[in-house]
Amino acid sequence: xxxxxxxxxxRPIAHVRGGRAExxxxxxxxxxxxxxxxxxxxxxxxxxxxxxxxxxxxxxFHRVAESAVxxxxxxxxxxxxxxxxxxxxxxxxxxxxxIGVTVCRLLGVEATTLxxxxxxxxxxxxxxxxxxxxxxxxxxxxxxxxxxARQLMAGYWG
Length: 158
Known about the structure:
By secondary structure, the chain is mainly β. The chain has one helix spanning 147-153; strands spanning 14-17, 32-37, 54-60, 73-74, 85-86, 99-110, 113-117, 126-132.
């Protein structure tokens, strides 16, 4: 049976408010922002989330133009001293569906707004989903990564 591509329509459940206005590569851990649910949700949608220290945020890199999307390989951050690797071997914003995923610290919940730190999304970013971070869903066993990835992340949060 041949593979048949399907399309899916997604709508934001929230938007990022505050934090950075531009997507700068490093120093994200000091950035605080709010995530405001869209009007169809009431505070019950966030009930119990304040019992978690971290939240996983699924969002759209909404300012990446279709023409900037990479379907093959590239040097991460355009650095020729790092290997050319496929778009699915990196976490860059120029990915085919422009979906970002970040685990950030949950600073608080008030009504339909979350306050977070370390979310590498900019003001106005559409949020597709929120999930509490649970130990049971973290990687089991050792996490392996190449040296270039460790170098790339050295200043990303700090």
